Amino acid sequence: DVKVTQSSRYLVKRTGEKVFLECVQDMDHENMFWYRQDPGLGLRLIYFSYDVKMKEKGDIPEGYSVSREKKERFSLILESASTNQTSMYLCASSLKGQLNTEAFFGQGTRLTVV
Amino acid sequence: ILNVEQSPQSLHVQEGDSTNFTCSFPSSNFYALHWYRWETAKSPEALFVMTLNGDEKKKGRISATLNTKEGYSYLYIKGSQPEDSATYLCAFISLSNFGNEKLTFGTGTRLTIIP
């Protein structure tokens, strides 16, 4: 059974804290993505990675960074958490060069910044 | 930022009725379009992957069509059941300025089936 696993289901952090959201996939996928989901705004792409140590900014990268040191793991980092980063964060992965195959998602991390 | 739109934003449908909703996307540089179903407390799961203009896909009571020339896809649900209640997302697959694959999602259609 294919799996994308996010490290936490729920997380509460204080303003100014450094926050790490981890995502691990076991399908040997090259592509990995981080999205945030907010009511009325759908899934918005923060960052994505197409290979180890390779990354590209998505549509809303401000306030975030990412790390991909191993193929199976893609981390989203909030350098200094702010209340406007309270959201649901979803990780996804897909095969590179296979546009006719779907992406697979983690279960989401609901982050609250207080 | 690519413009991928879905309508309506939400929909209430009586059990047994049929329904449909729309995803519109850029008609240029098309690579693929995906449909996902996202049930509460679960991960989004793929329904259809569509790559060719005129594609029609079917899975049980759910089907989808694709028009890449005009930039839209329809999702149809026949004889709605309570288990169809979910948010339905479309994702437009494109290449970034650096040639890497990215998925841009619409805002979703939240479907509620009324028993």
What can you see in these coordinates?
The complex is a heterodimer of chains A (114) and B (115). Chain A is an all-beta fold. The N and C termini of chain A lie far apart (36 Å). In chain B, strands 2, 4, 5, 9, 10 and 11 form a six-stranded mixed beta sheet that branches. Chain B has a five-stranded antiparallel beta sheet with strand order 1-3-8-7-6, with no helix packed on it. Chain B starts with a strand and ends with a strand. The chains are: A mainly beta (114), B mainly beta (115). The interface between A and B is medium-sized, with 30 and 28 residues.
Question: What's a concise summary of this model?
Answer:
In chain A, 0% of the residues lie in helices and 56% in strands. By secondary structure, chain A is an all-beta fold.
Give the DSSP E fraction of chain B (strand runs of 2 or more residues).
Answer: over 45%
Uncertain runs of chain B: none
Taking the sheet with the most strands of chain A, its summary is: 7 strands, mixed
Average per-residue pLDDT of chain B, rounded, comes to 94
Measured as a percent range, the helix fraction of chain B is: under 10%
Q: Low-confidence segments of chain A, ≥5 residues, pLDDT <50?
A: none
Main sheet specs of chain B? 6 strands, mixed
Q: Taking Cα atoms only, what radius of gyration of chain A do you get, to the nearest Å? A: 13 Å
Largest interface: A-B, 30 and 28 residues
Total number of β-strand segments of chain A? 11
Write down the overall geometry of chain B. globular
Write the layout of secondary structure elements.
The complex is a heterodimer of chains A (114) and B (115).
Chain A: E1 4-6, E2 10-13, E3 19-25, E4 31-38, E5 42-51, E6 54-57, E7 64-70, E8 73-78, E9 87-94, E10 104-105, E11 109-113
Parallel strand pairs in A: 2-11
Antiparallel strand pairs in A: 1-3, 3-8, 4-5, 4-9, 5-6, 7-8, 9-10, 9-11
Chain B: E1 5-7, E2 10-14, E3 19-24, E4 32-38, E5 45-50, E6 56-59, E7 62-67, E8 72-77, E9 86-95, E10 101-105, E11 109-114
Parallel strand pairs in B: 2-11
Antiparallel strand pairs in B: 1-3, 3-8, 4-5, 4-9, 6-7, 7-8, 9-10, 9-11
